[in-house]
Design brief:
Bound molecules: thymidine-5'-phosphate
Distance between the termini: 12 Å
Order of helices and strands: EHEHHEHHEHHEH
Shape: globular
Structural class: alpha/beta
Strand order of the largest sheet: 2-3-1-4-5
Helix content: 55-70%
CATH topology: Rossmann fold
Number of helices: 8
Largest sheet: 5 strands, parallel
CATH superfamily: P-loop containing nucleotide triphosphate hydrolases
CATH class: Alpha Beta
Number of domains: 1
CATH architecture: 3-Layer(aba) Sandwich
Strand content: 5-15%
């Protein structure tokens, strides 16, 4: 039996990491073999590309280059890691995937969804996540959470408030276009409330 592919999306500080660990533990407790991964990255080559993408000194990076590097890392990720794991019956949970390219490059960088779609089709040939969780919350709350963690910011985290408003809006727009694939979670609720919704979705996936 093929495994299932789950992706997590959201703006910075929306709780993806905490809930990624929660999903992994929940699935493992039900005897499922889980591969946890992330984008950009997830493979040795992809992690090198991630380094290029997040490096703050690369302020001259053109939006087209950024988009193509995202998809170059993704092509390697799909072929080397995701598809083989799914074929072995494992479930794959990825911290971000193609919806992030629509939100960050398509909307926030202003490229438009129509520039992303042909590249997605070329790289993925119809391959899509079975379920995408969108952790949605007001940008100020997420930014305050990120600031309270301290540490270095990357090239994307340096962006301004309106950039992230566009990212947030694009995720919600994507979810409206294909509601069956997405679960939009109000990440400003308590962790328990968010996780109850995650469980309901995972249960449905298990039974599907
Ligand atoms: P992370 O902070 O969730 O690890 O993701 C790294 C950054 O990369 C994040 O700011 C979102 C951005 N990103 C894109 O701009 N496009 C993409 O396709 C992906 C996967 C991530």
């Amino acid at each position: 039996m093929q495994g299932k592919f789950i992706t997590l999306e959201g703006t910075e500080g929306a709780g993806k990491s905490t809930n990624l660990a929660f999903i992994e533990t929940w699935l493992q407790a039900r005897g499922i073999d889980v591969v946890v991964t992330r984008e950009p990255g997830g493979t040795a080559i992809g992690e090198k590309i991630r380094g290029l993408l997040l490096d703050k000194s690369h302020s001259e990076m053109h939006a087209d280059t950024e988009l193509l590097l995202m998809f170059a890392a993704r092509a390697q990720h799909i072929q080397e890691k995701i598809l083989p794991a799914l074929a072995e019956g494992k479930w794959v949970v990825s911290d971000r995937f193609t919806d992030a390219s629509y939100a960050y490059q398509g909307a926030a960088r202003g490229m438009g969804f129509e520039r992303i779609a042909p590249i997605e089709a070329w790289v993925q040939q119809g391959f899509q996540p079975h379920k995408t969780f969108i952790f949605d919350l007001p940008i100020e709350i997420g930014m305050a959470r990120v600031a309270s963690r301290g540490g270095q910011t990357d090239r994307f985290e340096q962006e301004r408030h309106d950039f992230f408003e566009k990212v947030r809006g694009a995720y919600l727009q994507r979810a409206e276009l294909a509601p069956a694939r997405y679960a939009v979670l109000d990440a400003s609720q308590s962790l328990e409330a968010v996780q109850a919704q995650i469980i309901a979705n995972l249960q449905a996936l298990l039974e599907a």
